[in-house]
């Protein structure tokens, strides 16, 4: 379908004689992102336009002159779909469709359409369906021609005969309640999985970042997994977890999450909370940033805002978060060198290229260092009846030396965190005499 992208740039009321923009992002970057979102679901974007809006109209958002100008462009380019990169009320959406004789969707509707295409698991489908139904609650209105049924269903391009959301709001609410119950079961299942992981306490490292920042590419580079990674907004939606070994042999679980985006609809964040809880449980958060994007600072602010909404405040994020400055391979040589030098002088920043692998070893070392905490050196003798602990030791400690004794026991020189040292003492746990003989520091 041929589509036109319209980016309204609203101005806030003047304060102290100055007019401030209602958005922190540049109009050009918003247009580029909205075009990318449309292309992510195979729309043919034939025109993109930035529209200043000094006085938003309650009925149409845009002024009559601009509406007529866009209508002429739609007729000229034979465009049957208009994407407005701004939230629209049901009344505004309906009136614009009448004026332009075209389908109109806002930013929320477009993101929901993308998520609906990308959801590949039952959980993802449930989350998208719930968000879509909540979005549709106020939009049970007739569509833009008398040939089509009511607006609704899983997509906006169904045309005549598309899936119809029930006109009865009670039935709609019943469906929402049913989905919420099914998602509650998903939350309980995830909690059970996390409880099992705690019994084998591998640290969890979560990747977060703006959509298309390169999280999945970095995930594949580190773990060797085959997660879909394309230069596309929201290429992946469902979370993926993989075990991986750090340079010194310690095992951790790496979690790849859905990409964030500015102005993410509130009900969409609520629907995906079960997925995003993986971030809340993480021992370490890697904030992946696309440093080749001129708007990366605004994107970073959007990510930090969502993390704060999830309950990760600024003080906590300082302890648990590493900034990963990704895509440095796309930078000019002078900018690249400056970026690498700047990151090397910061305590919580690593510059990498997930494509070329530059800086990934440094990132892995930093992850290992941050997860290790205060290291304890120990020499331990494992008797024959405790040799089953060897795999656990190689997963959770750094083994600097090993000696196989004639009686079948093994003596190991270890480095491990205080927490894991305590856990090892508990696992050896044959009483005070055994602890004294088998555990020497």
Automatic annotation (TrEMBL):
GO CC entries: cytoplasm
Entry binding sites for Mg(2+): 216, 236
The molecular function terms of the Gene Ontology recorded here are: GTP binding; GTPase activity; metal ion binding; ribosome binding
Organism domain of life: Bacteria
Classification via InterPro entries: G_HFLX_dom, GTP-bd, GTP-bd_M, GTPase_HflX, GTPase_HflX_N, GTPase_HflX_N_sf, HflX_C, P-loop_NTPase
Q: Where is this region: Disordered?
A: 1-32, 422-441
Similarity section: Belongs to the TRAFAC class OBG-HflX-like GTPase superfamily. HflX GTPase family.
Report what the protein is called: GTPase HflX
Q: Species name for this entry?
A: Rhizobium chutanense
